[in-house]
Amino acid sequence: MRAFLSETGQGLEMQEKTIDPEAENLAYCLPAMDRLCRVSVLIPAFLEEDNVEDCLGGYARQLSFDGKSFLDPQLWEILVLVNREEGIQPDATFERVMKMKELYPNIRIHVGDVVFSAGEGGVGRARKILADVAQLRAAKAGIDFRKFFIQGTDMDLKRVDATLIVRLMQRMERDVNLVAVAGERVFDPGLVGEIDILFLVTRAKTLLKRILLDSRYLGNGLDSSCNFTFLNGPNVGMRLSSYAQTTGYNPRLRCDEDSDISRKMCRLDGGIERIQSVVVRSARRMVLPFLSGDFGSEYSGFGDISVEREVRDISTNDVLAKLGAFRNLDDSNIHVLEFYLNILFEKCFRSAPGDKTLMHFFKKMLGDLGFCHGDYVLDIHEFKIKILSLKNIRSALRDYRHGQFYEKWLASQRMAMENAY
After folding, report:
1. Rounded to an integer, what distance in angstroms lies between the CA atom of residue 148 and that of residue 36?
2. What is the pLDDT of residue 183?
3. What predicted TM-score, i.e. pTM, was given to this entire model?
4. 189 with 79: CB under 8 angstroms?
5. Counting C-beta atoms within 10 Å of the first and last residue's C-beta, which end of the chain has fewer, N or C?
């Protein structure tokens, strides 16, 4: 284990953490970090050739503080790690990242290409390497970790808020006690609005977030249990000095590594806040279990190359065509709605184990969604919901879609997408 010096609020202190050898190699090969740099955008990329242009193009068009000109390239950089394991044939991801470097010569896009031994790769290790590289480069440049931020993201983002990096810097610099800020992730409303289950799950997340953030329930909008539940995802910025106080991303996790780092960040002293930065996600995250037919995990299909390739660049129209059987909620697909509600149920309760008030919050969310008492049974030990009747939820869904609130919801989602440039 190598000792790593990290600059925190108390000065330099020793952090006993492992620096991945691949991170040291990559940091050594890259050009030195500019001393004015304040943000590293960290992007792992596994077979992402069809998404490189949208994602990097969105970040390359980041606006400055005045909102009229492009952001000074000295203030930020992009670190991309193209990665795969032995035995997996590469696609053109690396070459397309290099083309983006040529297309945007003023933007500091740094890229590494790593082939892990079989069984030793995955997104957890890729994120850990990128964060290690950012720390090593910032330390070598003599940058104060308290004034440096890392932005975790994914390559499969279709659109990126043009003010994302500026807002991250503004919030972090304005409040030195913040350890992280999280933005929003949305799907194409044309997709969500057409498929009952995706619409209900999207609405359930919004309702639960609203309930957990309500100060009447928690007394503090920055409560860590709420933030753990909703911090994870590909649109989170972290103060480097705060990240350095944790053990970092877990390199052994092949999925849910974002939830793991969220839990660690929420244990730190300081606040976590949400800014209105928006990224539009690829639909593949939601449709993998549908296409694989395996609803045992939210990440069913991840690691299955045939399934992964099928959904790498899936469009809204393709999703609607492939998921026709799930468009309308009925007894044949009730298990799919249970599956996604179970994920929310587990995240909610794992954020604050033993807190029985969260059962009340979850039941309130189900009521606001349209379920009535007796329509379901909750098993708090297994984090499972069993839906007994669809009558009331289908009636509520029908009423909501024909009301003025549905049009307002669609308008808000479309506005979020329009702002994500």
Report:
1. 10
2. 67
3. 0.79
4. no
5. N
Residues 402 and 197: their CA atoms lie apart, in Å, by 17
Question: SS3 letters for 176-244?
Answer: CCEEEEEEEEECCHHHHCCCHHHHHHHHHHHHHHHHHHCHHHHCCCCCHHHHHHHHCCCEEEEEHHHHC
Tell which residue, 53, 55, 285, has the closest CA to residue 159: 55
Q: What is the DSSP string of 292-350?
A: HT--S-TTTTTT-HHHHHHHTT--HHHHHHHTGGGSS--TTSHHHHHHHHHHHHHHHHH
Q: How far apart are CA 67 and CA 31, in angstroms?
A: 29
Task: Give the three-class secondary structure for 81.
Answer: strand
Return the half-sphere exposure (C-beta side, CA atoms, 13 A cut-off) of residue 338.
22
Neighbours of 24 (CB within 10 A): 15
Amino acid 159 reads R
- Which has the higher per-residue pLDDT, 226 or 33? 33
230 and 253 Cβ atoms separated by less than 8 Å: no
Neighbouring-strand partners of residue 44: 81
Residues 187, 156 contacting (CB under 8 angstroms): no
